[in-house]
Amino acid sequence: MPNTDHLEISAGNEAESEAVSKPVGAGDNGQAETDLPIGRRLQLLRERNGWSQRELAKRSGVTNSVISTIEQGRVSPSISSLEKILAGFPVSLREFFTFDPDAEAPVFFAVGEMETRQFGGLNSRRLFAHQGVAVTHVVYEASTGEAASSSPSLYQRDGMTVGVIISGQLEVTVGGQVRVLQAGEGYQFDQTRPHCIRNLAEEECVVLSVSC
């Protein structure tokens, strides 16, 4: 039996147990409003974003095993658990259940239609994500005494990353190598190597980044 501690399942909570035993989006007759099981729908949405299960788990604040067991259909998440996972995209419950995995991918994107992410002094807009490859437009805000950074210290994760500086300058540290890159210059490295990317300048830095 899978470990469901992270899915907020409580044997003593009838309401929570019902939310787990009956799929989210199901009507009173127990039939789901979508033909796709929740796990399969979650998997397709994750893959459309080009993320591994580990990446989605990290973004959602749950364990990798939680994502895996849901996608395999071994458990059906409670409403609150599913909302927590969907916040990692982010999408709402309504968007999740109306998402059409067979729809043709859009050709053009307005600024407001791109997935955005902000933390620290970093702002990003994802332009493309498919089969584990993501292309992102990243803006590192101008330094105000504290460097705008992708991480406050050396960081490690799975995959490769490649970037080209569009404007401004960026300090890139990979292992024991450190270099300040100017517009037109770039970088590539295996993200399992300890690394840190920081903007130490008094102007913002714009980067086109590809990760896989």
Automatic annotation (TrEMBL):
The keyword Methyltransferase does not apply. Pfam families: Cupin_2, HTH_3. Residues 42-96 form the HTH cro/C1-type domain. InterPro entries: Cro/C1-type_HTH, Cupin_2, Lambda_DNA-bd_dom_sf, RmlC-like_jellyroll, RmlC_Cupin_sf, TransReg_Diox_bact_type. GO terms for molecular function: DNA binding; DNA-binding transcription factor activity. One of its GO terms (cellular component) is cytosol. This is Transcriptional regulator with XRE-family HTH domain. It comes from the Bacteria. Residues 1-36 are annotated as: Disordered. It comes from Pseudoteredinibacter isoporae. Keywords: DNA-binding. Gene3D superfamilies: Jelly Rolls (2.60.120.10), lambda repressor-like DNA-binding domains (1.10.260.40). PROSITE patterns: HTH_CROC1 (PS50943).
